[in-house]
Amino acid sequence: MAPDTVSLRYFLVLAQELNFTRAAARIGIAQPALSARMRRLEAELGTSLLVRNTRSVVLTTAGAALAESAPPALAALDRAWDAARNAGAGELGTLRIGYSLSAGAETAPALVDRLIRSSPGLEVGAVPMATPDITPAVADGRIDAGITRGEQPGRGVRRFLLRRMRIGVQLAQHHPLAGHPEIEIADAAAYPLRLPDRASNPVIHDQLAAIFRDTRPNPRFITPAVSFDMSQQDLRAGLILAPSGETAVITQTAGLTWRPLHGAPTMTFHLVLPREQSPLHHRIRTIAKALVHDLHWLPD
């Protein structure tokens, strides 16, 4: 049986001081209590550690061996306790995050960076995923957390609002509407409107389309045959507009600009966590709340 670590730590202080009075004062206990601890420690080990007399303390061969080998053992034990406490606090382990492509412009990188900087013991991996796949992957444990554009449907998860942003349109810098600080919905609807493929994100597709529901004549929606993010030629030519969130300002290519739509609703991004949450999930939630506050993602 290994000795209790308190007595072992007391012994190391005594081995440095080689004086019961000084060692007891340094530890903050009475000298008789220290002497009793040392006798119990020797009894547990079945050997003498100290040679005592009225003036000095000398380590035996066993005592010298213990004084040399105990510090690294205690340091390893301390690391083990720290690892257990950090894991219990959600500050240690591997974190897998899936995010929708639109969240990769700003939202996901900001959260991942904050997680890495605030929890050095976390190994964070983040991968882009098709939006409809994120919630099921969180629910069945394939990933630990997700970031989605729009409140995506699905069971077995909890959703937390991360941010709201204005909806506007991407358009060519030379487009007639680009000179307006805000664009009226009816004015935008006079041009063909490029929407993302509904299969890639039904929630956002329907939200964007609904903005123009009451305009007359009925707007013309276009879904590009190639990737939504790569189809820019018609935009740069000024032939179409692309309804999108404000993060388009960050990702737009040369020749394009973004203007908000007057009276349009906001677009949301959500943190998706499993319904049954571990300390790791609580840690993610705590850090996300601090990030939302610091970056003013949810203004009053």
Automatic annotation (TrEMBL):
Keyword Nucleus applies: no
Record bears the keyword Cell division: no
PROSITE patterns with a match to the protein in the record: HTH_LYSR
One example GO MF annotation: DNA binding
The HTH lysR-type domain, residue ranges: 3-60
Keywords: Activator, DNA-binding, Transcription, Transcription regulation
GO CC annotations, alphabetized: protein-DNA complex
Family: Belongs to the LysR transcriptional regulatory family.
Name of the protein in its database record: LysR family transcriptional regulator
